[in-house]
Every structure is written in C-alpha cells, then in structure tokens.
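Q: Hi! First time asking for a complex rather than a single chain. Here are the components, and I think there are two in total. Is that enough to go on?
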Amino acid sequence: MSVMPHPRADAALACLAGKGGERHQGRAFSSDLSVDEAVLLKEIGYEPRGLVVGSAVYHLGIQYSNWSTNQEMTELTQAMYQARQEAVTAMERHAEQVGGQGVVGLKLEVQMHSGGHPLAEFVAMGTAVANPTTHTRGIWVSDLSGQDLYLLIRAGYQPVGLAFGACVYHVAHQAMGQWLGQQNQNVELGNYTSALYEARELAMTRMQQEAERARADGIVAMRIDQKSHMWGSHVIEFLAIGTSVRLVAAEHQRISPELTVSLNDEPEPATVPPTASGDAAEG
Amino acid sequence: MTDQAAAQQRQQASIASLERGGLPLAAQERIEEMRGGRSAWTSDLSVAEMAAIAHAGFEPVGMVMGSSVCRIAAQWGYTTVYGLGGASAGGRVRTYPCPHGFYGYGVGSEHRTGYNWEHSYYEAGITETRNLALRRILEEAHGVGAHGVVGVRIMRRHLEGVGNSLEFTCIGTAVRRRGGPQLRTPFMSHLDGVSFSKLLHGGYVPVALVMGIGAMEIDPGCGTEWQLRSWSNSRIQQISDGIEEARMLGINHLESEVATVDADGAVGVSTDLATYELGGESTLVELFLLGTAVRRYAKEPLDEPPLPIMRLR
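A: Yes, that's all I need. Here is the structure of the assembled complex.
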C-alpha cells in the first residue's frame, strides 16, 4: 500500500521527533478554548496566554421585605453585583499577570451552597489572549466564544468589555381573600406582571449605563438570566449581561458569506430554539 | 494442573509483571497479536473521525489502555487544636489569626486560628496514579508501533471515598502514519479524531495529556465562623482565598506539566471543581484540570482561510 503524501503530517511528526518546527515564543499556556476557537483566534492574530480565574465567596444574609409589596431588595442587589464585580476584577488581575490583552469565553457562574450557611461562590473564568503585534492598555473581557469574536473582529468591531446589571426583586404575595376570589377565573396576576417588568427594566438599564460609561457603541449577545437561587419563589434575581463593542474600522466590514443548502436529510438547526432559562418563579 | 490453579498462577505472573514495571499478561498478549498484524484493528472512532484522521495522513492501529489503582496517603492537617500537623508536607499555607485578640485559646475555646492549606500528599498521590496509567497506555501504543493515541478518555474514581484508593484509567485509539519516523514517546490527546485533524491543519501537533490538580483544605477560624453566623451580606475572605488558591494551584501545575513535556500550551482544558466535607467545619476544595498539550510546528495557521457560510437549511 502506497502512502499518500502529506507534508503537514510529516512536518508535525518531525517536530515531535525533535527536528524543527516554528515553535511558539513565550511562556507555556493553558486554555479552555476548543480547537476551532484556538485556530480561528490565531487567524485574527490572537494567541492564548493562559486560563485565568477569579472568585469571590459571599455570605448572603437575609433582607426582610414586606410580604405584600413589590420592591427591590437593594442590599441583595448590591451584594450580587459587587461579588460578580470582584470575581471579574480578580480574573483581570490574573490576566494581566500572564500578559493578556483580553479574556474570551468568560464563564461567570454562581454556585449556591445552602447547606448550613447561605454561601454563594461567584466564579469568573476564561482564556486570556493577546495579539503580540499590538500594544493596548487595560484588559477587555468578553463572554463571546472564539468563533463569535472572529466574526466580530472581521466585521470591524472591537470588544470593549463586559456589561452587566443585576436586580434582586421581591414579588408581592396576594392577599388570601383575593386569592380565594380568583379561584374559578382566568385573570392576569397584575402584581407578578408588573414586578417582572420593573425588575427586568432595572437590570437592563444598569447594564446599558455600564456600557455607556465604557464609551461602547452597543452590546452584543446580551441575555437575561432569571433565578431565585436560594430565596424561594417570590425573590428573583434578574441578571442582564452581554459584551459591549465599539466599531473601530471606518465602517462595518461586509463578510459576504457563501450561501449553502444542506442536502442531508435532517440538517442541524441553524439556531438553537429559545428555552426557558433559569428557575423562574412559579405560582 | 487445575483451571483454578492455572488462573491463579497467571494472575500472580501479571502482578509480578506490574511490579517490574511491565504490563499484565492479558495486555501483553493483546499487543503481541496487534503487532503481528494478523488481527483486525479495533477503534472507537466514529466514521467522521476515521475520515478526518485519514485526511490528516494517519490510520488507526487499535485501541490501547492504561490503568492503575493506588492508595492515596493520609495527610494530617492543621485542624487539631494541639498544634500544627501537616506543615511537613511543604504545601501552601495561609493563616487567619483570631480577630478578637484572644491568643490563649485551647481545647473547647471558640477562638482559634483558621488555616487554608494545600494537600500536597493527596495531589502527589493522584499525579503518581496518573503517571502509572499513562506509562502503561504509552507502552501499549509504543508496542503496537503507533505514533500517537487520539480520543483518550479518562476515568477517575475514588473507590472508597475521597482520600483513600483511586482508580485512574485511560483508553484511546492508537494511530500511525505509515513510513513516519518512530517516536520515543507517542503523542496523546483527549481530543476526538476530527479535532485532531483540525489541530494538525491549524499548525499544532498534540504532545501529551497534561493534568493539573489543586487541593486546598479550608479550616475556618473563629473570624470566619462569626462572619458565617452573621446576618449581613459580606465577602468571606478565607473561603474566597481557599477556592482561588485551589484554582491557581491547578492552573500552575497544569502549566508546569506543559513545560515539562516541552509543549507550547494546552488546549481543550476541562475544569472540574469538587468540594468534599471533611468533618467539623473543614472542607477540601479540589480543582482538576485536564487538557492536551500542543506544540506549534507551523506558523501559518491554515492551509486555506476558513470560508464563511450561511446555512439555508
């Protein structure tokens, strides 16, 4: 059996055998990038610098709220926001240490440990990247994937940073008489509807203000997470989060994608159908 | 000789072989058969992976495996009020003195110093178990004349609860390039066959499986405990530090393994954070990282730039 010529495979094996190869300059890095992400980021000049993390563990005490009013739990909002901010700041410090210019694929998670003490761990984790041919000040942070960043930068934009806003809200309980009176009717629960509106607006406005302070043009890939964490169904946190971007090219660069039609029987869906996220309040 | 006696003898021969640093008999025979080229090759590659590997110039040789079960040494800690126990292991330690100014604490007192300390014996035990398993899979790969192993799956199990015995097993498909130079150590990758092919076309070649482990025990001091009992929303410094330290240790250990195998970096790193209650208020926080170390052999990224497409279903 003859062997197919394959210069890439031969060069790779020669490099493993210790003969040649255009080796990477600088420190050894770790990254949670997938192969696709690593290869695409390399296309736009970014190389991984290392996996970076920051974490903050918070004790979340109880804030008393009036049983029958809709109101923001300002102390909890403050704690939830500040804890995330601290985790991200610690991660940025780490990114600076490894010589990064930005962080891609940020995962900002909250883990609640309700056993014993009401503890919440806020973790920020991503891969620090840098473009060795440019010098920038400060670190930009983005929760976009490597594929998304490739597309964004090819289109002439630059990520400015993470923008997020939080709001913890208490939804009023209904009075007993009112509840009994509605048992055999379909009615809108006005207090629920307006509370959810109010809380969502607050979180989004705060996020938007953050992007404006960073002098961004807009926010992409924004999402709203709605979670009750450990507080029961009447206290809900809304988190609005996205990556703020700025147009750095003279104008938007057209990418002109090739249109393809799959001839497979059941093509993969181009977009993921939206699903209810989080453990939104029930009943 | 009865069948039972023969089986027993065979098992003893296997154990003796393991002690000499070799492979058990069953594995030796399997390798021998594969090397002979008479048997059909085995692989757990999907059809797409198979095609991708061929596209990258390689072919499958057979499935290879390495496994080891070890006992992890116990490590006494700082928890005791009688004095410092685990300092000899040489791991990282951070202390949180009593903020209330009581120095003469002792048995039964609620004032005590808090400690965050690294379980370095535990870390070393897991690394050692892993080393044995990796050495065996590499020996098998070398034995069948492969250049590397792709799609390596790792199974890591605490058999009798954390801090006791640990099983570490890795299984993957050995691949080779016909006519390629024999490597002293075959490469290993936990990435699947398709990713292997993309990596190669992207100018990187996998070198080895690398691991990083950071294990920190958090023994809360009285300052931390008082804070936990309070009604206020506040940052718990000692626990924040402990978790961050475990993560940093894991990443540092991973990056030093990357440097040891003379690679440029690690990709596809998975992170796995586990916490174990150790009794009392103490907690062990463990971060386990696993990735494929890669070396860059070509500067220019792809043979052809990627083509943007829009799918119309």
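A: Residues 188 and 208 of chain B are 5 Å apart (CA to CA). Let me know if you'd like any chain examined more closely.
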